[in-house]
Structure formats: structure tokens, C-alpha cells
Amino acid sequence: MRILNITAMALALGIILATSAVADDMARWKSHAVSVEIVRDDWGIAHVHGKTDADAVFGAIYAQCEDDFRRVEENYLTALGLRAAAEGETQIWQDLRQRLVIEPDTLKADYAKSPDWLKRLMDSWADGMNFYLATHPNVKPRVITHYEPWMALSFTEGSIGGDIERASLPDLAQFYGRVKLGLARDNLHEDTGSNGIAIAPKDSADGHALLLINPHVTFFFRAELQMTSEEGLNAYGASTWGQFFIYQGFNPAIGWMHTTSYIDTTDKFAETVVAKDGKYFYRYGSELRPVDTKPITIAWRDNSGRMRSRTFAAYYTIHGPVVGAEGGKWISISLMNRPIEALEQSFLRTKAHDLASFMKVAALRANSSNDTVFADTKGEIAFLVPQFVPKRDDSFDYAKPVDGSDPHSSWQGPTPLDDLPHVLNPSTGWLFNTNDWPYSVAGPDSPKPQDFPRYLAGAGENMRGLHVSQLLATRHSLKLEDLERVAFDPFLPGFARLIPGLVKAYDATSAADPLRAGLQEQVALLRSWDYCWSDHSLATTLAVNWGDTLWTVAFPAGRSPNIAAFDALDRLSARDKLEALARVSNQLQKDFGTWRVAWGAFNRYQRVSDDIGELHFSDDEPSIPVPFVYSRWGSLASSAARRYPNTRRYYGASGNSFVAVVDFGPKIRAMAVITGGESGDPKSPHFNDQALRYVRGELRPVYFYPSDLAGHIERDYHPGD
Prior knowledge:
By secondary structure, the protein is α+β, with helices and mostly antiparallel strands. The strands form four sheets. A ten-stranded mixed sheet has the order 21-19-18-9-8-7-6-3-2-30. Strands 4, 5, 22, 23, 24, 25, 26, 27, 28 and 29 form a ten-stranded mixed sheet that branches. Helix 13 (493-507) crosses helix 18. A hairpin with a 2-residue loop joins strand 15 (307-317) and strand 16. The chain is built from 21 helices and 30 strands. Mean pLDDT is 93; it is low at 184-190.
């Protein structure tokens, strides 16, 4: 390992770590600033207006930095593979994984060949970041003290994790470092989920399309923001910290909601590798091809604060970077890596004005991770799977590593958009997605699985999908407020599926069995339960604790919460089900003096700091009750909560993060709420001012038009004022 000085580290990373703002920079930044107006409403939300789109980008990223620079910085430490430089040696493997596909020199070349309009946006993005740092000298960046335009290409889609995160860190560390990682896994909350619902005019009370935007991600992962310009930009919604586009939201004509897709867009290949004359080769058909090798240097900070580095020889085949080994084979991964097109698509969709123009942007085919639910003022609604889906030989099982030596297993280019299971304007008058497969999104008007390759099935159906289907099939003439109520419908189909099996197991228990008497009151309570959450419900507390315990029995390594998982839970023995209920009853009795604990007293929301990473909760600190539960059980509103060290109660860390409902009438009407508040500063009045609305599902009016903002302006200023 080498000890690096700052200059050597900058060269190793291929980035600029420190520079002084020269006069030309400051003049350019101030020119942007005077062309930008930031209006803060009475919730602290920034409404940014610029003369040009580039000005709006400058103002938007400046406003984000004002609200929570640490989260902006965090996302680029991750995206650029710089976490170890900030946090130490334990982050080397995450950085190496990222750098297998994100390299500064490549991104610089991509920036150079980007279209001029996109370069202007990236330039303004970097200028806005740097102007914020120049005007806030008390803010001390951990690693990057000067942002370059090309860095925006490292983080282009807005999802909570990039495609490379499908590669296992323990496998990577074992392969490249012979290191065995003991990573803690939260096997209760593998998938956080999201919900999108679009209602066509035929099923709405006012003849307008409606849209529900409801991402379930890590709390505080995105800002709420409006961006407008005199070049036609006017987008409102959730923007991932550090990005210069609205990721999930709406404009005066259309709305879009992205849900994480489990359709297969990344694949692993088992490579047959041989050593020959001190070099590595891999078999591809009848050929032995040389394994490409590239040095990657990872800088890391030791406990004394000194910068050190470690250089790896990274390996690549025709399929992509090598990320591990299994059964004597090297494992490579294929994934989409088109940062220019991805950033173009992410921004341009926010300026689309109807379904046709939205689909024109989708034709860039640079979205690999998200399904999309769409609605517009023309009354059109649509569901799209990721627009980048590689075409493959369906005789291979791509759910596991396929034989990389067989050329027939390789990708055959992107699938044409018309060959994907999209849904446009279904006759049902509604469609949805809850991270499930595309074959139930519009009821009887959904695509049919037999018409598409197996690899497009994704994870199958889930309980939220069944819940939404039941609601939309029976509710018509919906108003905006009705869609809000759908988003917080308390029914839990997962427990409606599981509790009868528990009751049956109890009823079959011998009278001599101690469990018969010990669980009599608990089973009686669950037998009469309506399977609906509420903050005063005793049954919800008992059921969720029981279900979470049963889940760890059935799936100690974790798994996706699809319908097949509930089949497996059903097959558990009667003894497993009853003993799990006895264990949770005893734990509640120990912790609270009774197993009869109201759900709101047990399931809590707490925000007392803006900690990122390892979370700390305390039963002794202020918290408020959360009536809804984790989405696995079919709850559309989600709080992925659990016990933490030294807590008796559950505390949520992910789930509902931004909830909005939009009416696409002649004039847009929308309501929304975010987790906690807009600011990351605990001293700000907007750190937690939305918390009660958030837990109660009480959305507030969105100030979309200047006339909406009138009377609700807290501050009006230029960046740098």
C-alpha cells in the first residue's frame, strides 16, 4: 500500500480535489446567480426559476446543497467510488465495484462528446455546486472540494442503487483481495418497493387523468423541488440529492412515476479461464481470448487521516467486468453503461408534453432499472417496463450465471421498444405497478406472459399488486382525494392470506398442549381481526411481529416478498407458526409488561439527527406513532421498520418517502408530502415540519403555479444572497 499526498491522490483518482475559485469562475457563477430566482414556500420547498434551462440547473443544485449538502456529497462519493477516501479501508470494496464501470477518464471522454445542450447543463451543475461551496466556507467537503462537469455522468438515473450493485461485495472482495467480508444483512427488508397508479378519464369523477406517485426508498433520499425556465422547463416532484432533474413528478402536461423494476436487465456469465504464459485467457466458442486487464487505484483514509492507496488489476471479458468466482469459473457481469443517453433521457422526459413525446424520449433506451407509470392532460395513461432490456436466447436461464463460453448466451443488442410488454390506454381505465411483473398491471388488459420471453417476468406478483387490483376493480369515478385514500388503504392482504392458517393450526392443537392455553387470547384476537392496520390496533402489533419472526424462520438468507414467498410461509409446519406466535408474545410481555400493545405505541417515526449510514434510534428520544406497516404484507403505504440495538420498539428507516397525487385537468392540481421535512439541518423549522402529515397520510396542497405560491412565500432570493 502507498501513502499519498493530496496531489498524488488527485492524480490517482483522476479528479480535482482542491482548487481556488479564480476570478473568471466567480464572474461566471455570479452571472448565473443573477439569472436565477429561488422562492422558498412555507414548507421550505424551493421553486427555482432560471432564464435558461442551464440557469435552472444552477439554481436547483444550489438549493439542494442549501438543504442537505451532506446527502448531495454522499451520493457522489458513492457514484465516483470515493467512499474509502472519506470513510476508510472498509469501503474499498464498494469503491472497487463502482470503479469497474465508472472511470474518470472515460467520463471525461463522454463529456467531450456529449451534445452541446447537455454540456451546458453539466457545466451549470458543476458551477452551482462550486458556487455553493465558495459562498459557504464553513461547509467542509470530505473529499471533493471542486466539482467538474463530467462528474454528473457518474449518477444519471436517480434510482437508489446502480446496476453494478447487483454484483455481490463479498464475492468481489474474495476474488480480488482474498478477503472474507462479514456484511450484516437486514433480511427483513430486502426490497422497499414503490407504488404508481394511473387513472384514465373514464374512471375519474371529473374526466381527468389522475396519477399516484409513491416511491418507497430510504427516508430523506430525495428533495422536493420545482424547476422552471423560459425555455419551456416546468417540472415539479422528487429530485435525488445531487441530480439536476426531477426524477418522479409532473409538469403542466404529463406526470411520471418510476418504480424499481425486477425485470432482468443485468446478467452474470460463468467464464472458463485458463492461464497461459503468465496471462489469462477465456474460452468463447472455439476461441481462447485474452482477458483484458486494467489497473484501478482506490484511495483510502487511514485512522490517522493520511491518504493511502491500493491498486488492483481488474479483469474484463466480452461480457463485462469480472466480479467474482463460482465453481471454478470466473463470473463476469453485463449491464447497461450509457451515461450520456441516460442523462439525456432523465432530463428530456421532464419536458415532454404528451405520451407521444414521452415515448420519443424513451426511444433513447437508456433506462435499465425502472418501470414507469404515466398520465397526461390528454387523458392518456401508460405503463412501461425499462426501455433498456437486452435481447437474449430464451433457452438459457438468466436467473443464474449462464455459460459465458457459449456465444449464444451473449446479449443480442437491446430489445426494440415495440417488443416489450408495455401497456397504453387500457380499456379498464386504470393501471399500476408495485414492483411486480408486467402481467397484472391493467387487470384483464395486461400483457400475457406466454407472449414474451421468460426473462421479462421479473419477480412475479406481490401482495401490494393484489391489493391495488382489488381496489381499482371496485372503485370508480375517483376524485383526487379518493386516490389519496387508495394510497393509504389499511387492508393487509398478506395477513389475510396467512392468519387463517395460523388459526387452523391452533384449532388442531391438542387441549393438552401448553400452546393451546398460552395462545388462546392471542388467537382469538387475530381470528376476529379485519386485517387492517391502525395506530390503535393490538392485532397489527401481534401480526407484524409474528410475520417478521416467521419470515426469518422461512428465509434466513432473505428473499423477495413476492406471492411465491407466501406459498412457502403457508407450507411451514403448524408448530413453526404457533411457536413463532408464542415467542413474539413473550417478547412483547418482557418489553412492555403485556403482549397487548397498540401498533402506534410500538411502530414509530423518529428524526432527531441527519445521520447517514448507520442509523441510531432511541426509545428515550421523541418519536411519533406510525399507523401503516411494511409493504411486504400488502400495505400500500409503507414503513420498513424493525427493532434496533437497545430499542424495544420498531423504527422506520425506509418506505414512503414522497407521496403525491396529481389531477391532470385544464389546471394541474396536486397534493404531496415528504418524510419529515425538506431540510437536513436539525435546527431548521423545515427539518421535521411534515412529520405529522406524513404519518397520518394528510397530503398538503402543492404550490405549482405562481398564483398557488402567493401568500405562501417564506423567502425570495438569488443564489449567493
